[in-house]
Amino acid sequence: MAKAIMIQGTGSGAGKSLISAALCRIFSDEGMRVAPFKAQNMALNSYITLDGGEIGRAQALQAEAARAPATVDMNPILLKASGESGSQVIIHGKVHSTMKAKEYYAFKKTAWVAVRASFDRLSKQYDLIVMEGAGSPAEINLMDVDIVNMAAARYANAPVILVGDIDKGGVFASLYGTVELLKERVNPPTPHFDKGGMGGFCDADYIRGFIINKFRGDMDILKPGLDMIREKTGKPVIGVMPWINNVDLPEEDGLSLRGSNSKFKIQNSKSENIKIVIVRLQYISNFTDFDPFMYEPDVEIIYSRNPAEIENADMVIIPGSKNTAEDLRFLKETALDKSIKKAYTKGIRIIGICGGYQMLGRRIYDPHGIEGGCKEIEGLGLLNIKTTFETEKITCQVEAELTGIGDWGSGISKENTNAPNPILKGYEIHMGRSTGDIGLFNIKRLSSHPSPITHHPSLLFDGSRNRNCWGSYLHGIFENNAFRRNMLDHIRQKKGLEPLGHSIDYGRLRDEALDRLAGLVRRHVDMQFIKRMLEL
After folding, report:
1. CA distance 420 to 413
2. Cα–Cα distance between 318 and 123 in angstroms, integer?
3. What local confidence, expressed as pLDDT, does residue 188 receive?
4. pLDDT confidence bin for 317, thresholds 50/70/90
5. Where would a tag sit more exposed on the chain, N or C end, judged by fewer CB atoms within 10 A?
6. Does the active-site annotation cover 475?
7. What pLDDT is stored for residue 491 in this prediction?
8. How far from the centroid of its chain's Cα atoms is residue 3's Cα?
């Protein structure tokens, strides 16, 4: 059976996900079989596993750090907020239902069964499980329904490291307050939430140490606080992580959307940069699709709702959405639809991915009320397609090939891609079926969860185009290096600039970023303390 360690935080955004990823890489480097685990994640950024299951993008990144294949057991419960209708509940990679908060809390026993089953399977396959909590373990109004923080730590008998964000202020109060509130929680609260562990102890006893994250000050000034928090709680600060301007790794939620390139950006003159505007939707999802552009030396990327920026970009992208109809209404209410159409008329490249692809069509139908009460809504009309929301969700990894229809103003075609291998990788996550002028890509579904749908021949193809506008269901398509670079070089040529002609290896840069993150944790966290705690 695997050993386990858990990283919890004093609140959301404390740095749990990246600390967990770093530990996955560190112990993998030491030859251990490591798996990440987050019992329940609430995120609109998701990833599709090889067998077609849907999990949080953060756990996929942690699996990459651990050099392990991502599986649904690493994130058995995924919640995707859908607006007024509540959250879509995904269990073991499959959509279960849509629930409001009270309904889900009443559902916790069923969810807990799934959590335990996943942890038990991972425990038999790996040497170490790096667990991640959610939010704060000391939300006193939610302790009775907790399945992701202390309930999971108790089940796994996992020591906990508590992470606090000093940049937000009040880090010592949040560390101390968390411990004090957890002292009131004696184990086990109910038999079905415990398999042994530290029965009779309070939840605070699981916390063995603290990590202070995002520090950018004088350590001599901080040190008295470190000593005092140990005196008051009996628990040491085992690390102080510095502020990192840019970790160059995918973020989990939209609160941290960046508006400029990573440090890999070459300082070109402004006229030589390609300006990409990503429309910042209300329910934006899978925005990590566009992270590869952050590494490109000649790209300025902006998440925006500014009409002037949209109308003067070199490329406008409408991203995925967890509530496509509502975001389409939002575009119309804010007159951003007019800006997008104006950009199209000016010859600016317009791209839609997944929900954005659906919005670019002529009409969207929702006969089953998947996204609410509106049965039909008119699209932006730039693509000759119609979309119908169906009850079955398509989740699968895909291989795609451009259909070889020549240069049609987007800069991508089979003939002018300079990739030695024309097969592109991506994945689908959508409940809509689009019909009409479909045929930009030939696609091969490598997996599907549920089974592949083959009764409609149009499903053998994906994507649509109309002059300088195109759209696709394929998430992750911009991670294909030559495809991405060729598209950018086509825009450079239209601007009268020389093409760069070489591709940045996004996968390699991401792997190097994981190594850098692991190196920072090795330098600033007492890894010997963690190893002693785990008896390694």
Report:
1. 14
2. 41
3. 55
4. very high
5. N
6. yes
7. 93
8. 26
CATH 3.40.50.300 maps onto the chain at: 3-247+512-534
The single residue of 354, 430, 469, 490 carrying the catalytic annotation is 354
Q: Which position has the higher pLDDT, 304 or 44?
A: 304
| Alpha-carbon span 322 to 342, nearest angstrom | 26
What phi, psi does 94 have (nearest 5°)?
Answer: -115, 145
Query: Which residue would you say has higher pLDDT here, 267 or 127?
Result: 127
Residue 12 and residue 41: Cα distance in Å, rounded? Answer: 12
Both structure tokens of 504? 């940045």
Determine how many CB atoms are found less than 10 A away from the CB of residue 186: 13
Say which of 92, 430, 449, 475 is annotated catalytic.
Answer: 475
Selection from 351, 344, 322 nearest residue 474 by Cα: 351
265-503 CATH: 3.40.50.880
Q: Is 404 helix (H, G, I), strand (E, B) or coil?
A: coil
Both tokens of 490, joined, read 């086509």
Query: Two tokens at 365?
Result: 């139908």
Q: Is 354 a catalytic residue?
A: yes
DSSP string, 114-182: HHHHHHHHHHHH-SEEEEE--S-TT-TTTGGG-SSSHHHHHHHT--EEEEEEGGGS-HHHHHHHHHHHH
Model confidence, pTM? 0.87
Is residue 229 exposed (0-12), middle (13-18) or buried (19+ Cβ within 10 Å)?
Answer: buried
Nearest residue to 471 (alpha-carbon basis) of 258, 324, 255, 262: 324
> SS in 3 state form for 26-57?
HHHHCCCCEEEECCEEECCCEEECCCCCEEEH
Question: CA 329 to CA 83: how far, in whole Å?
Answer: 13
Q: Residue 11 is which amino acid?
A: G
Nearest to 382 by CA among 441, 338, 445: 338
What radius of gyration do the chain's Cα atoms show?
A: 24
Angstrom distances, CA of residue 209 to CA of 137, 159, 188, 212, 392:
15, 9, 22, 10, 45
Q: At which residue do the structure tokens 């685990």 appear?
A: 37
Domain 3-247+512-534 has CATH 3.40.50.80: no
**pLDDT of amino acid 140:** 87
Give the mean pLDDT of the chain.
87
